[in-house]
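Researcher: Next entry in the queue.
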Amino acid sequence: MDSTHSSPSSSPFELVSSALGRYVPGGGSAAAAGPDDARERQAGTRPLSDDPDADRADQILGVVNLDRELRVARSNLDAAVFAGLDAAPGRPFAELLPPGDVPTVTRRLRQVLETGEAHVARIQRLRRGDGSELVVSMSILPAAAPQEGLTVSLIAMARRLHLYAAETAIGTSLDIGETAQSLAESLLAWGDVAAVDLDFAVWTGEGVTERAQGRIRLRRAALVPDRAWPEGYVTPGGDLPNDASRLLAQAVRRDDAPQAIVLPDRGSVERLLGSPRVIRALVPGDRSASVACIPLVLDGDPPVVLGVAEVWRRADRPFHDSDLFDLQELVARTAHHVDLARQHQREHTQVLALQRRLLPRTGGHTIDIASVYQPATPDSAGVGGDWVNSFPLPDGRTALVVGDVVGHGLGAAATMGQLSMEARALLSAGLAPDEVLEHLDETVTLLDDAESGLAAGYSALGSTCCIALYDPVGHHVTLSSAGHLPPVLVLPNGAASPLALRPHPGLGTEFALREPFDVHTFGAPPGSLLALYTDGLVEDPALSIDEGIGRLAEVVSAVHPWDALQQAARHVVATLAPARQRDDVTLLLARMIGYRKGDTATWRLPARADAPSVARAHVRALLRQWHTRADTRDDVPLLVSELVTNAVRFAAGPVTVRLIRAGHGLLCEVGDTGNGRPRLSAGGLLDDGGRGLHVVHRLTTRWGVRWTDTGKVVWAEVPG
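Model: Structure for this entry, 720 residues:
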């Protein structure tokens, strides 16, 4: 339908009426359409049909102008399809609506008046004078000047047009609740009340398969119109009674095939439902007498029923065969949208499960950990690749890792999981933070390969990561960053500031842009607080990123040493997270505790032949002071002697011996300047080569090697 040219000052009513003037012949509507349109028709500038009545019959567009009190000011409803609608000037627009729709539509009208934002294409029923109803697509438009009220355009919904509009509306969302609600609103064109009940497995995203009829469980997904319902009636989110679920399943699955059914009157409904409790749960009111039940069927062999749609009517409006055909066609066209929403819900659940699995569980006795993850949107398309992790390393240190993978959805989540697990494995193997980032950089580059990538069309290039290792004995943190925002350190005296890190382009960047991963070491005395986070926490359109980080430092500095850390983390996020999140928000707070001075001892020995005996003497004296068990006082000196002997034999330079009394036992460390990796051979205890490592292996619960800038450290754990 072409609209005619109009001046910029034309109101929405005049614009719609001008469009109507092309199709409605002269007469009563000419005045409503405007004098310019009348002159154009008289001048013959508009093509008119030879049969004016035919023009009226084809017309489906009408317009009503409302004042600020929502009364009709003027209207153009001359087309035949609008016959019986009484839109006389001064009449409240609410009188054209079914009583149950008045609160919702009135709320929409006033919302457009207040905000000036149009409400477009609402499927709505209007009441004619004889009690019959007309289904229209109703759009509410603000007038050019606020004091002029509103313009309501009406498009009468022919059968084909309504089916097309309904299918288009239902397919616009991947949210299971919104999809069901759109379907129910479209079904309302055929009745007074429409409801959609889905198999519980659809809600959870599980695979829906054939099952015994008596075991089906239905949950109400949508119900229209929006109004107060009788007590006991099932509303959205509520489970249907077991008897009701079974009866509906049996009704629509006659002869083991999904079929639509119609219960033509109140007596039939009551005979089928039987129980008064079931009647209260399923029948929306005393006036509702007949119901059409249409299964939502997923095509297959055999077909699978996803749920049931129900349309209720009053006694004076019985269902006809044409109504049932229309309802079946609409539900058949849109059932696949429900299944797509189910699949999306399953993906969303999987992504969140993976993301939350990576969150730290507990810190341990040397560090206190708290974390918060807050997705930007409730749907999986909005779930990003933000992740934090914290875990104890075998040598007594604690790893703190935060990363931000580019993109959203399943591809980002899969990459996030792979990088997180790879980082944990490499750190547990003793690699330094900068070495781990080098491996992650190669992984991101590999995943971007078209043939080996995790998701077609997805690229993780430019992802960021920050790794910090806390040494509870030396009370310091070693940190490396790949393009990530700087952590914030709060010292015990309350001084807070972001760490000074050199900018880095991130993981997977081109070779020419790659920068080495710097290593930063800084003191973190007991009581210090370290905050690692992703950009969603500090990004604000009204602030620069530096100002956002400064706000974070200010809020974190207010966390007192006696505050519960998890509660403090939630407070930080609630204070800083933007009202309208555009990205995931992730925060990791780590409060340093460390070991007490009396629980550790360190000796530095020259690499001479008497070093093992000197080490044994120091260790025996310390174990007596710590009042350890007799078997521990026998095993630990032997263990330290073997490790020192290997260090003197295969390395040069001084040997460092460190003993730590941990909550779970003792941790022995022997460091040297050698770069060879001790390996346990297949030989026996009597073989000359490797006998010391066999002794170490038998005396410890676990042992390993970590690399340092000057050599290596062999660590071993002994039960207390």
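Model: The CA atoms of residues 555 and 572 lie 6 Å apart.
Researcher: Noted, moving on.
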